[in-house]
Amino acid sequence: MARADGRTPADLRPITIERGWSSQAEGSALISFGGTKVLCTASFTNGVPRWLQGKGTGWVTAEYAMLPRATNDRNDRESVKGKIGGRTHEISRLIGRSLRAIIDLKALGENTIVLDCDVLQADGGTRTAAITGAYVALADSIEWARGRKFIGQKAQPLIDTVAAVSVGIIDGEPMLDLAYVEDVRAETDMNVVATGRGLFVEVQGTAERAPFDRRELDSLLDLALAGTNQLAEFQRAALQSADA
Amino acid sequence: MARADGRTPADLRPITIERGWSSQAEGSALISFGGTKVLCTASFTNGVPRWLQGKGTGWVTAEYAMLPRATNDRNDRESVKGKIGGRTHEISRLIGRSLRAIIDLKALGENTIVLDCDVLQADGGTRTAAITGAYVALADSIEWARGRKFIGQKAQPLIDTVAAVSVGIIDGEPMLDLAYVEDVRAETDMNVVATGRGLFVEVQGTAERAPFDRRELDSLLDLALAGTNQLAEFQRAALQSADA
Amino acid sequence: MARADGRTPADLRPITIERGWSSQAEGSALISFGGTKVLCTASFTNGVPRWLQGKGTGWVTAEYAMLPRATNDRNDRESVKGKIGGRTHEISRLIGRSLRAIIDLKALGENTIVLDCDVLQADGGTRTAAITGAYVALADSIEWARGRKFIGQKAQPLIDTVAAVSVGIIDGEPMLDLAYVEDVRAETDMNVVATGRGLFVEVQGTAERAPFDRRELDSLLDLALAGTNQLAEFQRAALQSADA
Amino acid sequence: MARADGRTPADLRPITIERGWSSQAEGSALISFGGTKVLCTASFTNGVPRWLQGKGTGWVTAEYAMLPRATNDRNDRESVKGKIGGRTHEISRLIGRSLRAIIDLKALGENTIVLDCDVLQADGGTRTAAITGAYVALADSIEWARGRKFIGQKAQPLIDTVAAVSVGIIDGEPMLDLAYVEDVRAETDMNVVATGRGLFVEVQGTAERAPFDRRELDSLLDLALAGTNQLAEFQRAALQSADA
Amino acid sequence: MARADGRTPADLRPITIERGWSSQAEGSALISFGGTKVLCTASFTNGVPRWLQGKGTGWVTAEYAMLPRATNDRNDRESVKGKIGGRTHEISRLIGRSLRAIIDLKALGENTIVLDCDVLQADGGTRTAAITGAYVALADSIEWARGRKFIGQKAQPLIDTVAAVSVGIIDGEPMLDLAYVEDVRAETDMNVVATGRGLFVEVQGTAERAPFDRRELDSLLDLALAGTNQLAEFQRAALQSADA
Amino acid sequence: MARADGRTPADLRPITIERGWSSQAEGSALISFGGTKVLCTASFTNGVPRWLQGKGTGWVTAEYAMLPRATNDRNDRESVKGKIGGRTHEISRLIGRSLRAIIDLKALGENTIVLDCDVLQADGGTRTAAITGAYVALADSIEWARGRKFIGQKAQPLIDTVAAVSVGIIDGEPMLDLAYVEDVRAETDMNVVATGRGLFVEVQGTAERAPFDRRELDSLLDLALAGTNQLAEFQRAALQSADA
């Protein structure tokens, strides 16, 4: 079955990673999953929040947000509304957990890295693009810190890579990396975060229209792992390109 | 391997459901999963929010909260802090989605049901107890509404039952229904929401300490479905007891 | 004149005090005044807020709140609204002042006790039930702290007991402990907080419908003191029962 | 016993009422109780809030606030803190209830009056000065509205006058109208709101240091009623002066 | 062309400065520009905010606000709305910058002065009246601090005086010190803050109706400097009057 | 005198305008003033806010914000802080006023355009780049609306063009378009908004270090008008390029 944009069910959308997009941040990447564009920056600070001081361990956290006109209809700014919505909170927490899963916080030392993932344009899969791009920004910020000796030459804070992709069942068929028009039609929607070694970090499956059975769950997981494997390749390529 | 409270890995904690605990709400249940106690109330209103009016469909939503001293250390009230934390938002949304998955909103008609799940005492698994108890309150509120003819005699808004349970891997072994002391030690933690027919509504697995592989994921899902099956029995028994 | 529930004007509603309801808090009581049920917990912390440090004196404070469906119609959560209403503030302050009136803060030493009074079900007199139950939780938390030597064996932080009751004038007749249906009809409504020795801690009388004269005020005070005397007996009995 | 400012225990401080201070409001008064100065304005609007429409009844409400440097030490603005404190809420509600007690809302018709009481300088008794001054602003706004025919020529929305005063026990002696230096030393502090006919609208007595007995309560009430009687005279005089 | 209140285009409204209006603040002035009345208080504190400690420099800041019924129609309180509007923020910042422009923060030493400018009645030009009055309060608070030796006898923290006035073009004609009825009709509106020596501190011109050319800008600046010169005279006179 | 980046005092930084950057918005531009990059989107809605309905006039408004890591040090998000800072408010209002100055709201008809200006990278002059880019997005959204007949073929809502630039005095010398390192050293800082015809819309000059005289003001205005003239050329070129 062909998809609206001509992909087969197992295809990712065109992926681009513009590493070092920001000249201010210690690490950054402008990542695209088709029409979804997320600017990911890593802010490295020597030192940790008060509650962690003296424990010899670092901290990695993330914040996700969307520009008001990233979407087809304009959304009010959360700063204007004076509060952060549940969805924003949920995704920020997911990104933070995903990155911490592949970081050795002891090896990071008493340093803090904040990942900001701002969606400039949204066309489905913003959280998975954010995680995938944030990993690149994170990796660069660690090398930046190593260059300034905030992290030792032999320390290995990164214990694996991490990427994420969405999968879903549309008209009974499992599909990879849903665009927005597909996402709204999906019966079941799943976000999978996996490491470069193929282990799961997060599996979040939701029956949007109809509960799903074990067999459907299995085929979604197969598709997702194939997708995160490809994304790991894109990350590797971006990080091996000449320094930003 | 015996657990701290003597259970085997596949055992639920003692489950009790005090149906009709509240004399004010249209449906209610005080549910316990061991030391976790959640008061679930269903508030039925004839009519729907403005954005749904005239569409011939109803609305079901949920709010989750914890009393400040439900836990071992006191937490500041979210009302005093002036904002709701990400965890609260996330769980409220999960409960709402879980219940909507087994409701036929057309059959509900233009009626609104709000489920309030307030944790009076917390010992792990508060969100799963909340979903399991909220189903009982929801079912009772629908019968209440049928009695007052807000819902027709033949309408079947409930298309299945729904229950939830946590599973996790501790010291390499998958275990069912984690108590708080287990939860903090788990390498991987998963919440599974499933219908009475054994279909998945939500699967949320998180690598808290170490990413997990496909085999581990499978054994967690097996354990979870066995647990939700038992919980469905407790729900059935509670709803068949004499009217509250 | 008989009341809706068969009481005489000078009768309290059925009073129950479930001491030690919470297994988490240092002291707790689930108190009922008829259909009004309030869960009171005392959280004891060794140490005081910064502004009191080094003054050799302790601190006792209280927070009151109502579950959204404690009442007949559901109220929006204050955490969702993002601010605490005037009524909630007012009652929290009243409870705190009432308990501090019978505490010797010097004898308490540099320790802090926070009383949380959460109304699980509301049928009039929630603030008076909260004060009466909070005293029991407070007393238990002090004995808990004495057992852990945060308070000396001979220190007597409690210098009296304290209880509270509402009184009101309905159809010209003074009545004790108003249920909700009575409260809304009362011309004058008064909350009286008094010690076990019969001294006033707070007297808050309000003309809801018609200003009241001195004679009416006097008969309300008589009725209230008789009520707080009886409540002091219930408190004594609860605290003398086998340890929770 | 002479007081710091030379008054006898039964003396009010110098009282002044500058009626019509504001050229914008429909009624206004700048009232002083000694060093306490409160600007009271009444804003009259034809029409009522949505929840009252079509019921043939009006609405009177009040808001109290203090300028940041009204007091000896500067307080942060509540607008800057982003929330209103419990004390502010409590006093706003007290002022509103006090004025509604002497208003016939049916006779007011579908009109709304908002009383703003802003403390420009604070030296004890700000809430009692606010109530006393607000009555004058309220009365003037009603005459303003009668002049514009929003209220009929024969309608009598004001059924009595209302004034308020503080009393307290200092070193065992009951005293009237406490200045700030007295207020902080008082063992017991009471605010009494009474009508021109000598009936009670509010009685709020608080044991700040030591619980009080019935005899003390009685002498405080005597003192307070004598004080509100004098304040009623000041109000009458202000309202009979040439129009502002 | 005569103006509604009989002034010529180059006339200020009647200006009064009641120095020392507050008995609580270290410096204060109640200033009127016609019907606009602003209470300005200066709160002097020995010490500086944490971020300035140990730098040997002081801090001056300002907050502006309007009473809800300062204007012809009542505005909701910003404390009740829970947030400060853009206009309030903007004016507070302008006042702070204007005063810091004539203060030598080194000579002030590690001291903080907060200027509160509360508009009691508004009839146009509230920000310019606030700046002009705040200077008087500021000057008095510095003398107060010198008297208590928080500032040395020879220190000269004030390096100039500062005043502000509005100008605008109405029906093509430049006019000084616009009253509210003029302000709403102005094609162009400009606020000019200038020192006693005639130097500009702030120039804020806005085309409300029609963009303006260089010649118009020049004539507005001429008018404004003539106005601030006169205001500087009023300030001098107020400060030379017998001590408050 | 050469500047850090080699410019002469009268040079703009390199200016680029990427028109149609967003595929979601009705008009958009990614504009750069050197290292400052601002994404401007125009959201066109048929209809106006309730308070404007039926008046035959449109509405144009703007919101400005900065990504947390647009700057050299990370700033907390305003959405996380729960309130918008004064600077953000001030700039949003400035952008809105600037655009409304060149719009004929009657000719726009009952339509609303919201301009969002999000700073992706900040290196001085973010507000002036925002205004200059917003004009391009605005112009495109109007043509979009004309294409869909929300605006008539002959209607001319745009009555002029508008651009903005900063100027400042550094070491006594007036300079155009300050980069961040220049901005922090400027004695005087001025933002000028002018139309394509060379008329002023806003003139905001602030003495950051030392008050400025009339002659300095004049030379800043000369420099600024030369700058906005050049910016108008860049806008024209962008709008004449092939459609986005």
UniProtKB/TrEMBL annotation, chains A, B, C, D, E, F:
InterPro entries: ExoRNase_PH_dom1, ExoRNase_PH_dom2, ExoRNase_PH_dom2_sf, PNPase/RNase_PH_dom_sf, Ribosomal_Su5_D2-typ_SF, RNase_PH, RNase_PH_bac-type, RNase_PH_CS. It catalyses: tRNA(n+1) + phosphate = tRNA(n) + a ribonucleoside 5'-diphosphate. Phosphate binds at R87, G125, T126, R127. Residues 12-141, 160-226 form the Exoribonuclease phosphorolytic domain. Keywords: Nucleotidyltransferase, RNA-binding, rRNA processing, Transferase, tRNA processing, tRNA-binding. GO terms for biological process: rRNA 3'-end processing; rRNA catabolic process; tRNA processing. GO terms for molecular function: 3'-5'-RNA exonuclease activity; tRNA binding; tRNA nucleotidyltransferase activity. It is an enzyme of class 2 (transferase). Its EC number is 2.7.7.56. Homohexameric ring arranged as a trimer of dimers. Belongs to the RNase PH family. Phosphorolytic 3'-5' exoribonuclease that plays an important role in tRNA 3'-end maturation. Removes nucleotide residues following the 3'-CCA terminus of tRNAs; can also add nucleotides to the ends of RNA molecules by using nucleoside diphosphates as substrates, but this may not be physiologically important. Probably plays a role in initiation of 16S rRNA degradation (leading to ribosome degradation) during starvation. This is Ribonuclease PH. It comes from Naasia lichenicola. The gene is rph.
